[in-house]
Amino acid sequence: MQEKENSKAKYYIDRAYELNSSDPALFLYKGLNLEFSNKTEEAIAYYQKYDQLPLDSPYRELLEGRYLWLKRQKVYTEIDSLANETDLSSGDISTNTLAVFPLIYHGYNEDYVPLSRGFSEMISIDLAKVNNLTILERIRIQAVIDELKFSQSPSVNQSSAPRAGKLLKAGTIVSGDYDITEDKEFSINLASWDVLTSEQKSRTNVSGDLNDLFELQKRVVFSFLEKNGIELTQEEKEAIAYIPTQNLDAFLFYSKGLVEEDAGNFKGAETFYNNALQIDPNFGAAGNKLETSQALGKAGGSKELVVSVLKTVDPVIKVQSPINIVSSRLQSLGNNISSNFIQGLDSRNPAQDQGAGIILPEPPPPPAR
To answer: Where are the beta strands (DSSP E) in 145-249?
Structure first.
């Protein structure tokens, strides 16, 4: 029954898409229909069209959220598959591909624990500004953390770095630690390991007053790059030196948002990113994360859940008026979505409708000369 309903839906959606391939509602319907047909890769291609839509489109958030969710699931599937291999290949690994793991906090004040994610994210963002470096997404690193059961310590060391790097196809693993004392002294250490040789490539540390935390974070990045023999252009130096926020409380909320996002709690992440922006409205990184967490919160999870969310968007698919029979079907489709994807279609097969006689009007005469 489900397969039959999906087949009917595909017929009407495909016809509508032929008539209006720029309708954002159809991007979503095409993607969902492909998901229900277990064609995830094809669905992702339609969801990725979210970046073609204006920011105020009600479909942009749903398309983006679905795209990000399926990409997350794909990453976890890939890592899970690789983890089952006993002999991981290192043939296509480059030392210029870096994976930055969460830093470890050695202090006693638990309020500062979430900074582990915040620091690793800021370091990743800074390193990504170097043109000849490739920095892996945080979701990939989180998938490896979950797979290798780094529950007590999400960081890596000389013994765990090689396998983590091969799972990620990263030639260099970056991790470290930080401490904030009762006297408000801040210290941060950053180290790197060569995945192919299992040797530590570099280690650098910076310390100072907690009030200078953001400047110290930049200093440790510049020191790290220097010790790894990476020369920077003036443009790269200026880009890395940019500090997205000077407010520690805003950065703490941002870091808490990252923790919740990594755990798959997108609604919780949204709350923390909102808190960060309320303190510092110019904190662009928090604003970007707020958008993605909102999208994932609305369109993540099961495809059936997304179908139910669609009812709140009140979708209306618009087609050219001459195609009356298709128009009526599509209007029904837009107004009657259910967990089976569409509802209210009659029992006729698509082939019967194809013979219903869709007649296009004669083209207008050419203009008079």
So the answer is: 172-180, 185-194, 200-209
Long-range Cβ contact pairs of 252-255 (< 8 A, separation 24 or more):
252/111, 252/112, 252/114, 252/115, 252/118, 253/279, 253/286, 254/118, 254/283, 254/285, 254/286, 254/289, 255/114, 255/115, 255/116, 255/117, 255/118, 255/119, 255/121
Residue with tokens 């990263």: 170
**pTM of the complete model beyond 0.90:** no
- How does strand 185-194 pair with strand 172-180? antiparallel
Span 88-243 CATH architecture: 3-Layer(aba) Sandwich (3.40)
Q: Could you tell me the residue ranges of all domains in the chain?
A: 2-81+300-351, 88-243
188/332: higher pLDDT: 188
| pLDDT score recorded for residue 43 | 95
Q: What's CA 68's distance to the chain center, in Å?
A: 4
d(CA 255, CA 251): 6
- How many Cα atoms occupy the beta-carbon half-sphere of 266 within 13 Å? 17
CA distances from 113 to 147, 316, 357 (A): 22, 47, 67
